[in-house]
Design a protein that fits this description.
Order of helices and strands: EEEEEHHEHEHEHHEHEH
Radius of gyration: 18 Å
Number of helices: 8
Shape: globular
Largest sheet: 8 strands, mixed
Helix content: 25-40%
Length: 255
């Protein structure tokens, strides 16, 4: 199992971006004196997004994702999304939506032996990255078959308690609620277009301020007929201990 840091020139962002990659391609079996699953194998892949104020090193430094990916022969791609919420900003070269949803899967498949099959491609994240994973997985449901949102920061789309920085994304609050940057609308768009729906894993701690709005999204998706797996922790807040435990459950949930 290799941990690789790469830097490449992103066309969507107009700058060099860092990405951490966990790749199981170097596993060696001393009993048979050969590498396991040499180059002909295409690996199932999880794109894993960090939260607000975080970076591409968070998941490796704060969780046991390396160990668990190695045990499951899973490739994991961890990009840096800055504080973008993984959507297209108003400034030039600020298109994190295209970066995460289209460019990154294409570039990683060029560089590494990753499966190009939808059923082998997944996306997950925590907090801001939970929102990013949910929204990206919905908008690019032809790419991602399984989507996991942990303590997802979707509270800005709660019309009862909007947090007020929607003008960073759109010209008005109405646009925030009515376009597909709203995960409720993004899921409805899948239904309207007759596209394949991803399967969802949602979780949140009961002591997290984001718990009520995550329950709202869970109930909405279930009502709309989505395949949803839900998990919660009575004592957990917005914290790494919870996400460390949850990412192992996500990997167990993946096919």
């Amino acid at each position: 199992m290799a941990i690789i840091q790469i830097n490449y020139m992103s066309q969507a962002l107009g700058r060099t971006v860092p990405v951490n990659v966990i790749l199981p391609a170097d596993r060696y079996d001393f009993d048979t004196d050969r590498y396991l699953n040499p180059g002909e194998k295409k690996y199932k892949t999880l794109f894993l997004l960090h939260g607000l104020l975080g970076s591409y090193i968070d998941w490796i430094s704060e969780t046991r994702i390396h160990k668990w990916a190695m045990e499951r022969d899973l490739a994991v791609i961890m990009p840096s999304g800055d504080n973008s919420f993984y959507i297209k900003g108003k400034m030039p070269f600020d298109d994190y939506e295209t970066f995460i949803g289209k460019e990154l899967p294409m570039m990683m498949r060029r560089m590494f032996p990753l499966s190009e099959k939808r059923e082998d491609t997944y996306i997950a994240g925590l907090s801001m990255g939970g929102y990013g994973a949910l929204r990206t997985g919905m908008v690019y449901s032809d790419t991602f078959s399984h989507v996991a949102g942990l303590s997802s920061a979707i509270h800005m789309f709660d019309e009862e308690h909007p947090i007020g920085f929607e003008h960073d994304w759109c010209d008005s609050a109405e646009q925030v609620f009515k376009t597909d940057i709203n995960p409720w609308i993004a899921f409805d768009s899948i239904k309207e277009k007759g596209q394949k729906e991803p399967r969802f894993y949602l979780s949140c701690g009961r002591e997290d301020d984001l718990f009520p709005v995550n329950v709202k999204l869970r109930d909405y998706l279930i009502k709309k007929g989505a395949d949803v797996t839900w998990d919660e922790d009575e004592k957990a807040g917005h914290e790494w201990d919870f996400w460390d435990a949850q990412i192992e459950k996500v990997l167990d949930w993946l096919p």
